[in-house]
Design brief:
By secondary structure, the protein is mostly helical. The chain is built from 11 helices and no strands. The chain has helices at residues 95-108, 110-138, 146-188, 196-203, 207-237, 243-268, 272-278, 283-294, 298-333, 338-379, 381-395. The radius of gyration is 29 Å and the shape is globular. The protein starts with 94 loop residues before the first helix and ends in a 19-residue tail after the last helix.
Length: 414
Amino acid sequence: MSDGHGPPPETPSGWSAEQPPPYSAPSASPWTAPGAQQQVPYGQPYGQPPQPQQPPGPGPQTPYPPHPHPQPGYGHTAYQPALRPGIIPLRPLGLGDILDGTIKLIRSNPKAVLGLSAVAALLTAVPVAVGQAFFLDLWDPETATSTGQLSSMTALPSQYAGTLISYAVQFVVVTLLTGVLTRILGRAVFGGSLSAGEAWRLVKGRVPALFGVVGLMAAIMVVPLIVFGLLFAAIVMNPSADSVGWLAGLFLLFVVTYIPYYLFFTTRFAFASPVAVLESRGPLDAMRRSWNLVTGDFWRVLGILLLTSLLVGLVSGVLSVPFTLAGTMFGIFGAGSATTAVVSAVLIAIGGTVGAMISYPFQAGVAGLLYADRRMRSEAFDLVLQTAAIEQQRQGWVHASADELWHPSNSARS
């Protein structure tokens, strides 16, 4: 046992100050005044200069401190904060832990996280910006001639074509980005870091599974849209006196049914991508695994995902709206000039990139940490993480084999 005279041990480099090393010297004496720079030795009256300490001999020791306090009983264990070797404490997470861990993920490796997100955001923003710039350049609100109408009709396809191309690029780029960010997050939980190249080498074998997950999710979301679209087309192609009423009723039915449908399935399959990357599962198995993990905590997961979307939309909107508004106004008032079209496209692309480079990693980080939280709550996975973290702390570095701990065979209740 400790005599309580020594100062607290220094925290090893790379580990949170919240958690003392498990195999280091015991903590300081409980009689130290909070915030004091110098400890009062055991039995030394307050207000007097400290006396040199002598090694304890066989003689009697001072039985009580000058200001006695209740002593813990036999077998009492002092509260120990949860291990926190990386971006989160290794225990079931609260909302604050998840948001804080996501911010720490971005700050701990900004070059890889923000750099990759900026590239992905730029690739998805450019087609929309180019289509929007052509639309603004060709559209002339003051022209009522047939030529002006023809120009406006020509501008509309260019705008929609840019949007469709952007969706196609987003499908590919964001899927790859999610996989890379998930792998970086998996190492950051232990306090380790990965470069973009290292993360890609670890993820590239999981790319087919990631595209399978995203493709199945897209199919689930698109099928109801196709059904409603066919019903809408049928009403329009066969007009009657009640067509307006039927269209209004169909729209109301779409809003009432599709929004809950969308929220339900996006929540149930929110962990499919992290599972596909960290647990090396196939698309269907990853979606089944996500469904099972969400079971029992659906409303909490849904609430955190909705709150995250709200926060991300607000922040990205604040960052991107000035550029998008400037590009739009510049294109409208300078229509007809090639230079104006280029400047407008650049401003719109910058706005989209700035907003998306924040939203992509934040949403991926929250989904990954929610996945870890659900495993800790339902499978006692925090015990596995703590055991590995203690061993890595003892050795002083994070092994690459830490990535294998995410496999479900390592769960304490598997």
